[in-house]
Amino acid sequence: MTRFTQFLAVDWSGAKGARQKGIALAVALAEGGPPVLVAPPDPKGWARSEVLAIVRNLKQPTLVGLDLGIGLPFHDAGAFFPGWDATPADARSLWALIDALCEGDPNLEAGGFVTHAEASRYFRHGAGLEGDRFMLPGAATREGRFRVAETAQRQQGVRPVSNFNLVGAAQVGKSSLTGMRMLHRLGGKVPVWPIDPLPETGPVVTEIYTSMAARLGGVTGTATKIRTYAALNEALDLLGSAPVTGSGAIDDHSSDALLTAAWLRRVHTNRDLWHPPGLTAEVARTEGWTFGAV
Fold first, then answer.
1. 229 and 147 assigned to the same domain
2. Is residue 65 classed as helix, strand or coil in its secondary structure?
């Protein structure tokens, strides 16, 4: 796994709008040096379609980390959407369904899916406003359904939020759904591990969770966001990375991308991260996995 020449981390956003201040991209080169932010082509931020174009057109052997869920829970119920005749059989079919139901949504948004008469039944839409299928019968908590990889994340001391939850600042539901539209539109041009086998050459897309990178960077407690250059460089030092230039405040989207790019460079040669015990063939085909969860 030393074949990658660079590591691209993408802090993603599912918000409405043509451009997103919440999207940040950073690159760490395999040869070393500090991670570097990739400037958006517009001061208003990145368009999701621009990120899609960058990933689709990668020529170098790049490990791409996307901070979003590449799948939905399947293993817990034997289906993404138990009780719905249109429930897909695997992750790629899920991406296709989401993209088809969002055909009228601009900017790779996901409103058409979360408001669809059947699909909406599986999501939490607001405080006290849940679809009648948000929870499975007999569920032990009110937090929603989780993938196998998210259960592994919890065992490592971080707190993922269900991708069926669309409420609150920490929710990743809309980010994940918009991200799945992007993955569908890659059209298989770039493999998405582990839904696709890990190729011997070329770029690869993986799912990441920036909080896991922050933990290895020495960030403790419930808050895993870094908002100063000093704190970022302390974390980068623990990851064996050269520091970035800057002082004072930094937005957490940029710090997440910078830290996670360096983290990918640091940990990608760990064979155990590519072969976690919970990653069965069925889980890979349906739910995918979060790189770094073991």
1. no
2. strand
CB-based contact 267:284 (threshold 8 Å): no
Reported as a single tens digit per residue, the pLDDT across 125-176 is 988 899 999 998 766 677 899 999 999 999 988 889 999 999 976 688 999 9
Q: Is 285 part of a structural domain of the chain? A: no
Average pLDDT over residues 44-71: 97
171 and 198 both lie in a single domain: no
Enclosing domain of residue 149: 91-183
Question: What pTM was computed for the model?
Answer: 0.96
Q: How many domains does the chain have?
A: 2
Strands 62-67 and 6-11: parallel
Angle at 129 between CA 127 and CA 134, to 5 degrees: 110
Task: Report the interhelical angle of 229-238 vs 252-267 (nearest 10°).
Answer: 10
Question: Is the Cα torsion angle 167, 173, 177, 178 positive or negative in sign?
Answer: positive
Which H/E stretch holds residue 11?
strand 6-11
